[in-house]
């Protein structure tokens, strides 16, 4: 099930121009996306030309999965750099695990989140970290609770919102989406 849900994300992320582009490490002047294996959740770290950084989801709440997400962020984003954008596609615990660690270690300039709330400890910890980043570092907290930018999925089993994001560069376009 997890593999099937990641396939569209990975395909869209690496098939920018119809050619397979692959790199294990960021290259100067190139858009770089690393999708991190976090088990059931998702974490993607993006380096955009001009030394800009984005985190899309923050991994599973289980310690090993959130550590893999945070480790990947540290490998790609130098500690003296800021994270320009963190997108939290939805409020499930498997997409918010490393948020407190990320915000503790980096200045995060903007956070986009879906607006859905949960009663889980993981969601409360992530939300408190985002609120603190807003208060202390002036992070712009964009909460899309009723915005048309959201895709709603409703079935007899789930009712959740997803953030869909497009980053357009001069040559490549990166589209990030998530599913639970």
Description:
There is one protein chain. The chain is α/β, with parallel strands linked by helices. The chain has one domain. The protein contains four helices and ten strands. The strands form three sheets. The protein has a six-stranded mixed beta sheet, sandwiched between helices. A hairpin with a 4-residue loop joins strand 9 and strand 10 (173-176). Helix 3 (99-105) packs parallel to helix 4. The longest helix is centred in the last third of the chain and has 17 residues, at 121-137. It is globular. The relative contact order is 0.16. Mean pLDDT is 76; it is low at 14-22 and 146-159.
| Main structural class | alpha/beta
Task: Please give the alpha-carbon distance between the first and last residues.
Answer: 10 Å
Largest sheet: 6 strands, mixed
Question: In total, how many domains does the architecture comprise?
Answer: 1
Number of helices: 4
Average pLDDT number: 76
Let me know the number of strands: 10
Shape: globular
Radius of gyration based on Cα positions: 15 Å
Unreliable spans are 14-22, 146-159
Order of secondary-structure elements: HEEEHEHEHEEEEE
In helices, the fraction of residues equals: 25-40%
Q: What share of residues are in beta strands?
A: 25-35%
Q: How would you write the strand order of the largest sheet? A: 1-2-3-4-5-6
Short account of what is shown:
It is built from four helices and ten strands; from the N terminus they run H-E-E-E-H-E-H-E-H-E-E-E-E-E. The chain has helices spanning 2-14, 63-76, 99-105, 121-137; strands at residues 32-36, 43-48, 52-58, 85-88, 110-113, 140-143, 150-154, 159-163, 165-168, 173-176. Strand 2 and strand 3 (52-58) form a beta hairpin.
